[in-house]
Amino acid sequence: GEEGAKEGVDLTKMLTPAWLNEADGQLRAHELLLIRFGKKQGINKKKDAKEVGVEIAKQVGATVAQVVGHTVLLYRPANPPSITLEIDESGGAGGVAG
Questions:
Q1: What is the rounded distance in angstroms from the CA atom of residue 91 to the CA atom of residue 20?
Q2: Taking Cα atoms as reference points, which of 34, 44, 29 lies closest to residue 66?
Q3: Alpha carbon distance 15, 66 (integer Å)
Q4: Residue 67 forms beta bridges with which residues?
C-alpha cells in the first residue's frame, strides 16, 4: 500500500470529499467527532485505526484526542472554543474538559 497506510485500508475510497465535508461540518458544530472503524473499512487492528485517524485529522485540521480499540475521537476547537483539550507532552490528549 501507500506510505503510512496499511494494506487493505484504502483511504481514497474512505475519505471522499463528501465524507470529509460531513466530518468538517460535525467538527464545526460539535468540536468532537467519534469515528468507529471495522472490517468493512479494512481496519483490523487498533494501530490501523490510529494511523487512519491521524490521516483524517490532518485532512480536517483536527487532533486525535483518543483512540480506544477501533474508535477514534477527533477534536478541533471552534472559534471561540466551547471545550478545552489539554495536550500532554507526548503529543497525545490528556483529557477533554468542558
A1: 24
A2: 34
A3: 20
A4: 72
User: The C-alpha cell of 61 is what?
Assistant: 485540521
Q: Which helix (H) or strand (E) holds 50?
A: helix 46-60
pTM of the entire structure?
A: 0.73
- CA distance linking residue 9 with residue 52, whole number of Å: 8
C-alpha cell at position 36: 468507529
Helix (H, G, I), strand (E, B) or coil at 47: helix
Backbone angles phi and psi of 39, in degrees to 5: -65, -30
Per-residue pLDDT of 52-98, as tens digits, reads 999 999 999 999 999 998 999 999 998 877 877 676 655 555 555 55
